[in-house]
Predict the structure.
Amino acid sequence: MTDPFVVIGGDAAGLSAASKFAREAPNRDVIVFEKGEWVSYAHCGTPYYVKGTVERLTDLLSLSPEKASERGIDLRRNHEVVGVDTDAETVTVAHDGETFSQPYGDLLVATGAHAVTGPIPGAELDGAFTMHGLDSAAAVRAALSEPGDSAVDTSIEYVDTALVEKYANWEPPERIAVVGGGYVGVEMAEAFRAHGLEVHVFQRGDHLLSPFGESVCERVADHLREQGVELHLGCSVTELDGGDRVEAVVHENGRVDVELALVGIGVAPNSQLLADTPVELGESGAVAVDEYGRTSVDNVYAAGDCAEDDHTVTGDPAWVPLGLTANRAGRAIGQTVAGDPEPVGEVAGTAVVKAFELECGRVGIIDHGEAREAGFDPVSRTITAGSRSGYYPGGDETTVTLCADRESGRVLGGSIVGRDRAAVRIDTLATALESDLTVAELERLDLAYAPPFSPVWDPILVAAKVLRGDLE
Ligand SMILES: Cc1cc2nc3c(=O)[nH]c(=O)nc-3n(C[C@H](O)[C@H](O)[C@H](O)COP(=O)(O)OP(=O)(O)OC[C@H]3O[C@@H](n4cnc5c(N)ncnc54)[C@H](O)[C@@H]3O)c2cc1C
């Protein structure tokens, strides 16, 4: 078995690749090494598990180890790849206190990303969490419950029982800090408010959800305040203070006493495994790959949160660690390694997030500085339009910002916010970017209309109409 397809990482990118490969090349072996217990889990659902919308941790699992085995995947949990030798074409694997060498014919690095906590001293204290993985979700959910409440089922085969039981014994908090106002911070603020907690969100910059642009950020900030969240904007947290456990958030202008803290200040790619190899990393620190997910070394691929992709608008490498990107690239690489090359696809930075009752979406380039750096002359317009025909109940004001290049008229990006199915409308813009549409072409799209779903002029079309006027 010297030419198996070896995959490092048993979640979205890794198992998508392994599944596709097993189907397309049943005569070759595929081995997946996963360092943890959990495989094929939905990070994206963890805030909703903490909130209580998703009842059981196991609801967040997709492909079970048994099903993986039925598909012909040799899945090895608790196996950490600790070294890669691209000359010898082997990986070194640590398992049960021992290491062994595994040859590969093709290698996929699908190691994901990790939550960063630095440079915030005290982020390692008990009661300070990041939201990355099912064990952290289980620990947070346990910490919110009354002792003896058994909110988390510790009989689940894989859960970190000791961690969950520790927090299950804590008295539930009354006041909690969320450090970081990105999408994880906003989703977690909603989850904590659902448990009746006093929630303080600290954001270093002036805006929550800053990649979504100003028009979204401002409406989200107002809405979070309406929902009882205490916002500390433009406020850098310098330390989490406490003895054995978190007792306060210290910031530039003072301190706020809290009983728990959730640190959501970003993620970084898990590419350090390749540090001693000739595999090249991109500027972001994630692995540089070509359109087929191939790295700079033959037979070595990378996909998902640990890899870059080409940006739809600029064509330059971009690091956008999101779920579809990981699944799609993994699947394509599985097919490519099986002998039928398939591009991994580009990324437009399409993202949606729920902020309590608001739906927010963004795609492409919205920021004018970023657009100029990419060689465009950006012009933007923000409009507000109804989400349904005015006479039909249930509609809401939907705000759309559209950004285009003045000279070519090409759509560069946009954002949207509203309560009534606003988020899914961003997919129209994602499609426009993928097709290099101009604002005039976007305005002429034949979008669907019926009063319960949309006004005659969909808010995206209204934005295109107004921006086209500016451009002309
Ligand atoms: C709280 C949260 C909410 C999110 N919400 C959304 C959302 O709404 N929409 C969206 O698009 N995306 C969302 N994401 C991002 C999305 O979950 C990721 O983009 C996706 O999981 C990436 O998949 P991946 O396979 O690349 O990495 P991961 O899912 O991180 O999997 C990598 C796996 O590799 C394993 N591994 C790492 N190193 C080694 C090693 N040396 N040896 C063996 N195994 C190793 C890890 O244990 C892990 O299981 C969210 C993420 C988080 C944390």
Notes: Residues 8-14, 33-36, 43-44, 46-47, 80-81, 110-113, 131-132, 184, 270, 273, 304-305, 321-324, 326 surround flavin-adenine dinucleotide (CB under 6 Å). DSSP finds twelve helices and 25 strands in the chain. The mean pLDDT is 96. Residues 314 and 374 are 6 Å apart (CA to CA).
